[in-house]
Amino acid sequence: MKEVRTTLLCSNCFKEAPMKILYIGNSMAKITCESCGYTIKVAPEEAIELYLDDLKHRILTKPLRIAKEIRKDSFQFISTFPLRVITKPLRVAREIDKSMI
Ligand SMILES: [Zn+2]
After folding, report:
1. What pLDDT tens digit does each residue of the chain (101 aa) get?
2. Number of structural domains, the chain?
3. Separation of 16 CA from ligand 1 center, angstroms?
């Protein structure tokens, strides 16, 4: 069994809550909302899709958050922020796009 944690919109309590995705063998995954305890069972392909959607959304919105940081205090930000943290999300986003084609 493999466990993945992510934040998703719960279809039961309609909150963005931490979700525990548990893979059971190769045929089933169980998603549990840690806010209300709601549990659904889905095929693993669907669980992976949900997870990737969420991950992709977070990676793609990250440059925007970084841009806001830069505007807030540009000198301190540039002098303390390691460059590889900026380039890494972009590489990951590119990899996800490739795997979806
Ligand atoms: Zn819930």
Report:
1. 788 888 888 888 988 889 898 887 777 788 899 999 999 888 877 877 877 787 777 777 766 665 665 565 555 544 554 444 445 555 556 666 666 55
2. 1
3. 8
